[in-house]
UniProtKB/TrEMBL annotation:
Protein name: Short-chain dehydrogenase
Protein's organism: Rothia kristinae
InterPro entries: NAD(P)-bd_dom_sf, Sc_DH/Rdtase_CS, SDR_fam
Domain of life according to the entry: Bacteria
NCBIfam families linked to this entry: PRK07231.1
Protein family membership: Belongs to the short-chain dehydrogenases/reductases (SDR) family.
């Protein structure tokens, strides 16, 4: 197992990509702290992990709230004896609109959770990892953090920020036994895409060279690789998992 004897924290792991990551890390031997604001969904993630024979515990945390974020690392230490791995996955979508029509509340929400939330979590994680001399982090970014996102500027701005934060943190901690990377998913078959009309889904698929939507498990596999010792000489990377879209 890749993570036997280690503890991982996965934010927004009540469903979708976060749940797939949490289950993958648990299958690879990690004890997993499941964090979300959706208590029932997170409890289901814990149940699924335990059903698979893994170990998990849930802590409610809104990553945009610094006080709630500050409880995550201590909870991992108290529950499982430490923290070795972290995945910052929390994010929100946005209603499509041109820049001039974006409402301030939509802008603040889009930056407050994916960007500020990742920043707050990363601060706590890096302080802990620096103290123990090792740790690995994966931030979940997006293709929207690499290329333009017309009509989705708040979302794109937040994910560009996550990418910048990732590479800056990676360089600052590279000599401290800490690695910080990001995964940039393309179109993934989660709740938002599943709810689209068939013709709209077909439009997404038509833009993907591999001619299929990604699965949450695709992101989980890439994340597990970057967290593992198989990626021991990799830091500051933004790994696209997009079926060839960006290429």
């Amino acid at each position: 197992m890749l993570f036997a004897g280690q503890t991982a924290l996965v934010t927004a792991s009540g469903a979708g990509i976060g749940r797939a990551i949490a289950r993958k890390l648990a299958r690879e031997g990690a004890a997993v702290v499941v964090s979300d604001i959706a208590d029932d969904a997170a409890a289901e993630t814990v149940r699924l992990i335990e059903q698979d024979g893994g170990k998990a515990a849930f802590l409610h945390a809104d990553v945009a709230d610094a006080d709630q974020v500050s409880r995550l690392v201590p909870f991992a230490i108290e529950t499982f004896g430490g923290l070795d791995l972290a995945v910052n996955n929390a994010g929100v979508g946005a209603m499509p609109a041109p820049v001039q029509d974006v409402e301030r509340a939509a802008w603040d929400r889009a930056l407050g959770i994916p960007l500020t939330g990742t920043f707050l979590c990363l601060q706590e994680q890096l302080r802990h990892f620096r103290g123990q001399g090792h740790g690995a982090v994966v931030n979940i970014a997006s293709l929207a953090g690499i290329s333009a996102t017309p009509r989705l500027s708040p979302y794109g701005a937040s994910k560009h920020g996550v990418v910048s934060l990732t590479v800056s943190a990676a360089l600052e901690t590279a000599d401290q036994g800490i690695r910080v990377n990001a995964v940039a998913p393309g179109a993934i078959e989660t709740g938002a895409l599943e709810s689209l009309p068939p013709e709209d889904k077909e439009g997404y698929v038509a833009q993907i060279p591999m001619r299929r939507l990604g699965r949450p498990e695709d992101i989980a596999e890439a994340t597990a690789f970057l967290l593992s010792e198989r990626a021991a000489f990799i830091t500051g990377v933004v790994l696209r998992v997009d079926g060839g879209t960006e290429a």
